[in-house]
Every structure is written in structure tokens, then in C-alpha cells.
Amino acid sequence: MTDILIIGGGPAGLTAAIYAGRAGKTVTLCEKEGMGGQITHAHLVSNYPGIPEVSGTDLGDRLCAQAMDMGAEVEFTTVTKLTRQEDGTFLAQTEDGTLQARAVIFAGGAKPRTLSLEGEAQLVGNGISYCALCDGAFFSGQDVAVVGGGNSALSDALFLSGLCRTVTLIHRRADFRAEPGLVERAKQTENIRFLTGCTVKTLYGEDHLERLTLENAEGLSCTLEVSGLFVALGRVPDCGLIADFTRLDENGYAMSAEDCGTDTPGLYVAGDCRRKTVRQLTTAVADGTVAATAACGYLG
Ligand code: NAP
Description:
Strand 12 and strand 13 form a beta hairpin. It is elongated and about 60 Å long. The strands form four sheets. Strands 1, 2, 3, 4, 5, 6 and 17 form a seven-stranded mixed sheet that branches. It has a five-stranded parallel sheet with strand order 8-15-9-10-11. Strands 12-13-14 form a three-stranded antiparallel sheet, with no helix packed on it. The relative contact order is 0.18. The longest helix is centred in the C-terminal third of the chain and has 19 residues, at 281-299. The protein contains seven helices and 17 strands. By secondary structure, the protein is an alpha/beta fold. Helix 1 packs parallel to helix 7 (281-299) and helix 5 runs parallel beside helix 6 (180-187). The chain binds NADP nicotinamide-adenine-dinucleotide phosphate (NAP).
């Protein structure tokens, strides 16, 4: 039996482990892929206060080391099922066995929706980015594209227009899901151009993105020479494990209170899997802090 089981080893989960460990609780953290979560895809993090530059993997490693120094047990395993027993404790089924915990912090994150194109995964960090705010500065003065038609894509295009030489916004439809005001601002921005009714078909570049081809509904294609493609197709949270314990919003994000508490006593959510407006490294670590503090208070 552990006091607190943390599911997810991104910045939110690892910060929760640091705080809960420091508060004297026993902590087990389960991570299915690699420590650091999404942040490991950022080849340079330069928006974390007090640390001007750090690689995403380095930051993930440091957070993990700090959590372990605070006593957290780290297990590389997938939690496949979570149940709550009559005495209020939780049972987590993992690939390797069963864990019992008095409280759970779910920090499963959300993944960017990808284009599912050949070569896309290999070019992440080398021209393909899912976070304009994190990576935009690396494309200063260059020609880039943004794909998507929601608020993220339009906000990204506007943000990048201040850094890059040109920004081409590619959207599969003529109508935008984004707020009209954002679309209007982008249309009035000199170095943003719109290519609507097009989808990205092929990515070219060995070590770095060099160009891409687009296709319209009639099957006509064209080539776009860009060194950066910012994919802004929305994110996909994976809250299936906790769906029986708390409400999810229309996009699948977990609803939670100010203290990260859910509809189930003893279950907290932290990081990008939570419904909230800003999903950044700093807000993930803030959630980890809040959730761990609340969970420690719950355990007494
Ligand atoms: P979103 O609103 O779900 O938009 C995703 C966009 O990607 C849509 O335009 C969609 O096209 C397109 N798309 C999805 N799959 C695609 C594919 N396979 N190929 C090509 N295009 C594809 O996602 P979001 O923009 O990330 O926004 C998520 C939430 O955060 C929204 O509630 C949004 O309002 C909020 N948000 C708010 C702000 C703000 O400043 N207020 C900023 C960012 C995000 P279709 O339209 O054709 O489906």
C-alpha cells in the first residue's frame, strides 16, 4: 500500500511526486513511456522561469531524479485499470501486477493530434512542432506554415508572424472553427497568408523539414518551401482510466475543482489532462503542486 499513486511521469506527475515526497508521503509513480512526458519533445525549453535554457529530456531527467531523491518509487509500466474499493482505497492494475493506494493523482497528459504522415515522427524537433509557443523562436526570420483551423492554429499563426518571415496557414476547409476575431486579425497581418481547402500530403527533408506538398479537393497539388510546420489540430486527452470516477468535458478532458480534486474523494487530476485554458510546462507543474498538496491534506 502506497499513500499516493501518481499515474503519468510528465512535469505535472513528477512535480506532484516531489511535493508529496517532501510532505512525507509514500509515493509510487507509474509512467508508460519515458520520464518527462511531452516536454521531452522540446529540444530546447526556454520558457521555464529561472532556467533560461534546458533541453526537454534533460529537464525530464532532472525532475525524475528530484522526485526519486524525495523518495518516490518510479515504475515503468502501464496502468491498465483503476478501481476504488469500499474502504476508499484504489487498486491499480498494471502490466506487472497490482498497486494499492490511499489516493491517486492522475497526470496522464494529452497528446497533440498528428497529421499521421510518413516521416512526421522523425521530423519532430527538426522542423515539425506541435507547440508554437515552445519552438517558435527557433524559426526566427524563416518561412513556416501552421496547419489547422481552430483557435490554436490562428493564435499560433499570429504569434509566429511576430518571429518568422512568412507564415502560411493551411486549413482543410474554407470556414474556420476559430473565433472570427482571431481569423480577422490573422487576415490583416501582412506576413500571414491563407491556403484553405488544402491538406498536407507529403513532407520532404532528411535531417530537417525542407518542403511539403499540399493537395486540394480537386486533387491539384502544390509545393510549399518551409523550414517549419506547426501542427495545431487540437489535442487528444486520454482520460479513459478515470472516466468512471469523474466527469469529462465534451473534448474528453477531466473536470476538476480549484484544488484539482475530482468527483471522487481521493482522486486528483493534474496537467494537460485537466480541463483548463492554458496548457504549458509552468501550468503543469503548478497543477502537480496543487494536486499533491490537496492529496496530502486529504490523507491527513
Ligand atoms: P480545435 O478547435 O479542435 O481545432 C482543430 C482544428 O484542426 C480544426 O480546424 C480541424 O479542422 C483541424 N483538424 C483536425 N484534424 C485534422 C486533420 N487530420 N487534418 C487537417 N485538419 C485537421 O483545436 P484547438 O484549436 O487546439 O482548440 C482546442 C480548444 O482550446 C478549443 O476549445 C479552443 O477554443 C481552445 N483554445 C482557445 C484559445 C484562445 O485563445 N481562446 C487558443 C487555443 C485553444 P475542421 O475545423 O475542419 O474540423
